[in-house]
């Protein structure tokens, strides 16, 4: 039987499309930590929206957002993994060091959507303990361009290209396999059809590359009807049903013994298991 772990998305951004800034308040974050941990073993905190319509922010702005919600004063249940969704190494390292200095011993992950394997990633793997790194598929030219990922869309990108990308990643991280997680990174540097093709071929990709995989399609725009917004009548139910169908197919067709699903809340997986 597959072991499926659930990662909950906690957006503490003022421009979040999914939760309206609900987690911009410390008390709501604390409630999520204490009352929602039965389903979720990983909590993924993000303070910058990388949705195409939003502008990138500075390291200081991102750190200030984490501080403004009292991140370093929260009480973290020991069994929960703390994941930080940031493409900025200095932001991650400051959070990591601050939490460790506060005595937080939880496992801490760096969820890096840049896809850039540079000296900072190597430093992370050497200098940190009780951590994992999430390696994502992205096609940006530099880490600083992460928020502009839709400018890096290549309409000629094929499934074979994505397979090759992760084969190369497999070589790069062969010595750290137990500490690296692969993420196809739906919605990043891909057009609508490429996202759908990737989703349909995901079981094969996961079976070919023997790493732990993190899958995040929760409320992604490519699941919506063309020209519709998530706030339009009936669209949320439409997306929820699409997610359910795709996730059930993934669980049925992939031979992977373990995977992680990244979702906004428990409603996103109703009817999947």
What is the class in the CATH system? Alpha Beta
What's the story with the biggest beta sheet? 8 strands, parallel, barrel
Give the full name of the CATH homologous superfamily.
Answer: Dihydropteroate synthase-like
How many β strands by DSSP?
8
Q: How would you classify the quaternary structure?
A: single chain
Properties at a glance:
273 residues, alpha/beta, TIM Barrel, eight-stranded parallel β-barrel, 8 helices
Description:
By secondary structure, the protein is an alpha/beta fold. It has a single domain (3-269), classed as Alpha-Beta Barrel (TIM Barrel), CATH 3.20.20. It is built from eight helices and eight strands; from the N terminus they run βαβαβαβαβαβααβαβ. The chain has helices at residues 26-35, 59-68, 89-101, 119-127, 159-172, 192-200, 202-208, 235-253; strands spanning 3-11, 42-46, 81-85, 108-112, 131-136, 180-183, 212-215, 258-263.
Outline:
By secondary structure, the protein is of the alpha/beta class. 33% of the residues lie in helices and 16% in strands. It has helices spanning 26-35, 59-68, 89-101, 119-127, 159-172, 192-200, 202-208, 235-253, and strands at 3-11, 42-46, 81-85, 108-112, 131-136, 180-183, 212-215, 258-263.
